[in-house]
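chain below, 864 aa
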Amino acid sequence: MNNDQSARVRRKRLLSPIWILPILAMVLGAWLLFTYVKQQGTEITIRFPDANGIEARKTLVKYQGLVVGMVQEVSLNSDRLSVNVTVKMDHTVDDLLRDQTRFWLVSPKASLTGVEGLDALFSGNYIAMKPGEGDRLVRFEADIMAPTSEEDSTLIQLIADKGGSLDAGSGVYFQQIKVGSILQSRLDPQSKKVRVTAQIDANYAPLVKESSHFWNVSGLSANASLAGVKLELESIASLLTGGVAFDSPEASPQAKSGSSFRLYENRDAATQDHFVDFDAASAEGLKVGSKIRLLGVDVGELTDIRVSGNRVSLTGAIRDSYRHILVSGTRFWQVKGQLSLRGVRNLGNLVLGDFINVSVGSGAPQDQFLLEDNKPDEARQGRAVTLHRRDAAGLSEGAPVHYNQLQVGEVLSLGLDQQDRISVKVWLNAPYDALLGSDSQFWLTQGVRVQADLSTLTVEADPLQQLISGGIAFSKGKPDTQAREEGYPLLDRPGSEASPEPLWLRLTADQADGLAPGAPVYYRQLEVGQVEKVRLADDGFQISLTLDGDYARLFSNASRFWRYSGVRIHGSFANFEVDTAAAMALLRGGIAFDNLEGMAQPQRDRWLYANRDDALTPAMRIQITLDADADLQPGAPVKYHQQTLGKVERVSLNAELSTLTATLALDPKWEDRFAVEGARYYLGEAEIGFGGTKNLSNLVLGNHLAALPGPAGSAAQTRFTALANEPAPDARAQALRLVLTQPQLGSVRIGSPVLYRQIPVGKVVKQGLADDATQVEITIELEPHYRHLVNRSSRFWNASGLTVKLGLFSGAEIHTESLDTLLMGGIAFATQEGTDDSNRASTLDRFPLHENSRESWLEWKPVF
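prediction:
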């Protein structure tokens, strides 16, 4: 037996199996704890404006129809203007709690636009959630309404002057199909405009263009006219809840989300964005709202009418789709309603007012145009023709033009041409304008025409059909002939153009003397024409007359006209005339003319003279300008000293009312002395005084016009200005004029004598103030054979009145120069030395006028 035994070594176990159960229990507990904590979720805070519809531990938070949280607590915010809602969110949405996540309260809402939040009607209000991007966040601001996504729709801003019937939920329509809705409308405090937020569905977003126009379609639109009543509405929904419609211009790019547009009141306002200005002579028949039409389609309307000077300015709005008509070359004209015996034209205009028609041009864009009264020729098919005659014969605008009783045109306008004839512009429609030729004739179709005077009575009648309509008719011209560019005469009847056309003349007269249209014109007692018109003019009367074509050859530059009306009596103390016209002229009045004889190159004269002698007596006529207060009458003689040179034919007041123009008729033999440069004229008036009289006959016969000749060989002159006073004598007349000065005028008067040793040697011819008004200037004139008595050594004194000297022992001494000076004043002078070249006085030399003489002056005794 072996007593040695080996030891058996075994490793001790690190963990006893008994610990397995505790470990498993620990792991299970940790997992249960983690699961519990995770399922508790995250607590967040959402700020709402108020707590209406939110209850703690009752109001749920939903996302995609699933409950993801519950309100735990509702408390008042520190600003006391809002509430904080504490929400326990499910752990499954922890990663959705981001910066852009949105929360809003969903509650049931019923309106005309529909029902919202119907599920909340049964389950109660709840808070909806829409996840967003950004950093994790546990505090949020609630939205007042459900947010929209730009991915799902396009948001636009509409700006309007007033909100109207628009509200959240109102529709947005395109072609009467709802393509979006109004989210909200609010008032902008700064701009005082209404800002409307609209949402366009994603599939309709391409319809919204950058140049789209939006307008309000709320309610019902009604339009009444003679054609009937038109009612228009976008949809029944828009009638009840309001709505917005828009257009989609094809050439415009798509608008981006967030774009702003103006919201117009209606479709017409939305599509009238292009404004145009018109200049017109008158706005009669037009008003704000008057339509602008192109081919019968309304393309705009007037928005403003105002007076600008003596014209009228109008503003029109053209719809955007017709903006292409606003180019140079486009013509606008007013279309008026007419009611006359010829019928009714544009009956609607008589009720609703006139409208503006358009003919489109093809030039560069412009926005200012002339508004014409009538349709321009360029907008018509056919051609215009000008007719002329001596009177309008009852024609008016719109009168028809006939060819073989068929209306082929109308009268466009009437006016006066340069020859004082009536010019009638007519339009011939195509293709009837091809009937016109160079030999065509135009005549009146006025129904009944009556012409009567004391010599004849003529009654003419056209067919009864023309009695009401009247108008003009014309005949077809020869083939291959062109229409006359100068126009055609408008005849009284067809075929009356065989006689030559009358000659029109215009005369000027200072008085009409009973002349009237129809008065005859005579040539040597033969009636050769008649007066057509008498009218007032600036320089008197203008008389238009015609000479029959057969007698037009009698007129020339030598023709002179005079009044030939009844009995004319012209008398004065100098002569007395009686001029009796023909017996018929006594009743009808008239004008006569004849031609001057013996004149090589007579000048044309358009004056109507008073009588035959004035007209046919050869005379040189000149014009004199006088002050307006000059007393000069027609017929006054023109005199040189006491010899008659001619007479005053007429006197007229000039336009400025300060001067007169006198026309003189001088004997031609005096032309080279009195119608030349240097000739002078002044008014010769009667003078009576103590110093004598002058032109005494003028008191009875009236003033005359005095004339002084000009130098021989001077240039011709026919217009003169009369002198204010009689001029100083010429140097060749040897009379001497001097100017005396003194502080006061005293008793000196014009005509007072100038004495030398008490002998009259001259007289006072003028008196007045000096230029600086410090003294009086007296002009004296010495007779030629006494002028040598005055030289530089002469002294002048006032010799007027009496000089009285009184002495105690010598008594009284009374002295006067002469009886004339006592009555009318006078001037005396004395000269110290004889006159030679060294001291000789010249014309208008100046001397002082002393108050009294000195003793030494009276002792001077020069030898001349």
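The longest helix spans residues 20-39. The chain has a mean pLDDT of 80.
thats it, cya
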